[in-house]
Amino acid sequence: xNFSQKLGLFIxxxxxxxxVYFSFFATEGINFKFPEKLYHNQxxxxxxxxxxxxxxxxxxxxxxxxxxxxSDSSGQLRSVNRECDTVVEKSCFEFAVKELISAPTKWExxxxxxxEIPSGTKILSVREGEGSIMIDLSSAFxxxxxxxxxxxxxRQIIKTAKANTNLPVYLYINGRQxxxxxxxxxxxxxxxxxxxxxx
Length: 199
Fold this sequence. Notes:
Elements: H1 3-24, H2 36-53, E1 63-71, E2 77-85, H3 92-102, H4 106-110, E3 123-128, E4 133-137, H5 146-164, E5 169-173, E6 176-177, E7 180-181, E8 186-187
Parallel strand pairs: 4-5
Antiparallel strand pairs: 1-2, 3-4, 5-6, 7-8
Helix pairs in contact: 3-5
């Protein structure tokens, strides 16, 4: 038997003895203890992962009251409130214009409120710059109702605009500044203010 064979036989005997010892004589079996530092690092890693996976809190909804103007049962313009969700709406001024165009609500109608703004009126755009705001409406805004109705709907726009911003507001119809409105040729001084309809 050469040296290599003897070495191999020796290793085989050592492995066999170790197997027999741990299988039949060692009551606790093979027990490996990991270093505490490694375990601690593992716990930290799990915590970090949990913190990373935590969802960002949803933004809190903040409501802002805006005012629009419609006519009461006696024909006088009155302000009514709408609640603008600042998280949902990109602009509470634009929200106020939208609410004015679609007003009154069913409840307001039941209380005698009306609006002279024609139902077919569309908002083409509301552009808010650093120094002014432009409201662009469709040509349906000019249609029907006669002179008194036209005056009232213009005042609705003016009062609503001034109640919701301190910036100068300009009224456009189909992309053109509305210096004259309707077939009656009602003159409007711009930017919109309480004296815009004075002759």
